[in-house]
Design brief:
This protein is an alpha+beta fold and about 475 residues long. Helix content is about 60%, strand content about 10%. The chain contains 9 helices and 4 strands. It has helices at about 5-20, 75-85, 85-105, 150-220, 225-260, 290, 295-315, 360-425, 430-465; strands spanning about 115-125, 130-145, 320-330, 340-350. The chain is elongated. Its main location: membrane. InterPro entries: MdtP/NodT-like, OMP_efflux. It is found in: Cell membrane.
Amino acid sequence: MSRMPSNFSHPLLAVLAACGLSACAVGPDYRQPELATLPGSFKHEAGWQTVQPREEPAAADENAPWWQPFADPTLDALLRELAAASPGVAQAEARYRQAQAALRATRAGFSPTVGASAGARRSSSGAGSDASIANALTLDLSASWTPDLWGRLRREAEAGRAELQASAADLAALRLSLQATLAQNYIRLRIFDLQRELLAQTEQAYLRSLELTRNQYDAGFAARADVVQAETQLESVRAELLDLAGQRATVENAVAVLAGRPPSALDLGADGSLPQLPAVPPAMPASLLTRRPDLVVAERRVAAANARIGVAEAAWFPELTLSLSGGYQSGSLGRLLDAPSRVWALGPTLAATLFDGGARSAAVEQAVAAHEESAAAWREAVLAALQETEDALARLRALEALAAQQGKVVALAQENERLVTNRYRSGLVSFLEVAVAQNTTLSARRAALDVTRDRLEASVQLVASLGGGWAPALE
């Protein structure tokens, strides 16, 4: 086999050494964006327990699902089913796998490309008696490698790795959003069950009132209008029961679809249960930057945009390609693998763009602007996250006070209904006053259930605002 000329080997070795020692990467190194106005505490956290950041690892019970404090087995089963069967989660998981494949494809650029070819050709030249026919058989093996002298591939890999991490956080953000939506719909469903139970109790109470009114009318102590009023009140409650059944069915269908089931495959019977109201999870504003997956998505997109600046700047530098090929060429198959048929080629190629009409400058400017946009989007997302958390804390505080006040309203309304009913039995008042008192009690009790629903939903929203206990994976 032919040997490499000595006068060619020294420059080639110098090129290879330069490639091996080259570790530079053009473009700015990434620095996480900062928010100068990040507060040290939440405005509406007064009265709630908070903790300071710590360095030791979390205890085992802190890694439990975020919905565990609600202590509802049915809710727990539905949320676990969502993670495994939701089409939305499956789509996000597929996007994550796409990001993994894209990163592997980018990293493949660091490796050389090897190819092989084989061919046969029959040709003629001349005409008539002077014509000659020749056969050409080839068998070649080639390899080429483009060393990453200026860090273009490293920056592309850096961007791909950031996009992969963003995709993982995006998956967590979608899963958390779907879980929070399912939990809130489940809470509404259970409140509907309690409201239906309340209306059923009220229906029985109104039946007794109607019977009392009829007795008073038969005895001459009440007018016919009182009987009609009692009947109207009873039928109104029955109409509300029918409307409530339709609303409950709609919410149950939503829960089924969120869990990845067809509506006909889920039947949540009324069991009188209600998730517990959990304590407010401790958190500091700075922890949102690592606990909320949507903020991690925004921050990783900033890192990817920063790396793409280096990719754009690398286009200004020449590209070196090292090529090596070898094989056999012969006019007959029998002599194809003989030593005289061996051929080889080795050499570098340096290519650069001398003029492109400003395309590279425009690409760099575009990359810088995209990075600035991503950084501004991250700051906007952080401010929105702080607002969501403050809103949830403020709403929980207001609802806690409202629940206590509404409890007093219910107690007073029930006492007033009892007194007015006794006065009606004694013939001191008309049934209109009884109806007003009964409707006041019903409205107060339904309002109390609404406050309970709002407190549970606000608790879910607060947990989601704090990231739902999610933590990004560390490489």
